[in-house]
Structures are given as structure tokens and as C-alpha cells.
Amino acid sequence: YARLKREFSLLHQITPQKCPYGLYAEQLSGSAFTCPRETNQRSWLYRIRPAVAHKPFRRFFCHNNVSDAWGDNDPNPSQLRWKPFDLPADDAKVDFVEGLHTLAGAGDAMTRNGLAIHIYACNASMIDRAGANGLANPRDFLTPRAWFEDRDVEEYAVVNKYQGHLFVALQDHSPFDVVAWHGNYAPYKYDMDNFMSMNTVSYGHADPSIFTVLTCPSSKP
To answer: Which pathway does UniProt place it in (predicted)?
Structure first.
């Protein structure tokens, strides 16, 4: 009883102003502050180190295959196709971020109107480098349980996509040092075995609207 009472007391001490165990409290917001309360996406994170403990962002120049310069190419009404991209050489290690190639796009990344289409080819896991991607049924996304890293490294690269360009910030520790969190806005993972390839009936027939050739968000519907 004494132990439970002490732990209950510690839980009530977790506030944005004061955290137990020397942790840093940060709110991760996934929606605008003007959104209705029931649609807010946010989580309180309790970290070993603050998220701002990294070097300034700089352009990520490991490759120049990601672009949002749609106006650099003249329009072409002819029937077109793209050739397959070259696979990484056997002696080259290319991860997900390095293997990205832009295929097409429209709109403006700065105003967040439009979209971009990328393809990737990689043969190596992301080691000491972080990125994210995925879209499928909500129930297939798994949020983390009790696990974190307290790991110092010589150089950890955090890659960020901002206004159609890639940037990278270096830091001397793992960014996965969130010891505790609560809320509805959290990182997740997805098992690709649950993904149904289109034009198959592996699990069931997809909704007909999924076969829309291309849709592009705009400021006016």
C-alpha cells in the first residue's frame, strides 16, 4: 500500500513545470490550436533530454533526387513512362532516405496545397538516422509500449522534410529517449504483411474510390 501510494503521488507530480526523475516535459502537437477540442491531437512526452538538444538543421545533400520544382520541366502531352530506377550497387549501402526519388507532383509545398509522389529503392536499414512513412487502416498501426534508449553516439542524424526539401540535424544521442507519454499523438509502426497490394483480392476487395488515378488537395474543394 505504501509503494502504491508513493507511485500515485509521483504521478500527480508530473506537470509541465516539474517532472520526477529529472525528466523533461514536452508537448507534441499534431493539430492547430484553433481546432475543436475533440479533434486535437497532442501528447505529453517525458524525455531524458530536451528535443532541442541538437545542432542546427542544414540541407541534406547526400543526394539530389527529391524535388518540388514542378515548373522546371515543360509540359508534354505525349504518352510517357518512366524507366525503372537503378538499384543500389552491391557494395553500396543505401537506406530509405537516400533511396528516395521524386516522380511527380503539383501545388506548392510552402502553402501545403498539392502533393508529391516519391519512390524508393534501398538495401540497408536506417542506423543512427530517423525518418517516417505509412498509410493504412488505423488498427494496424502499433504505438510504442514501455521502451526507450539512453544511448550516446558519436553522430546521430535526424532527417527532416520541410517545404519540399530535406534537412539534417546532428546530435550526440539517440532521439528515442521518451521515457513516458500520454495522449493521442504518438509515433507508430506498421507491419507490411498487413498491406494488401492493389489489383489483388488477397484480403478482400478494396473500396472503388481507391482506384482514383490522382487527387490533389487544394485551398478550395
So the answer is: Amino-acid degradation; L-phenylalanine degradation; acetoacetate and fumarate from L-phenylalanine: step 4/6
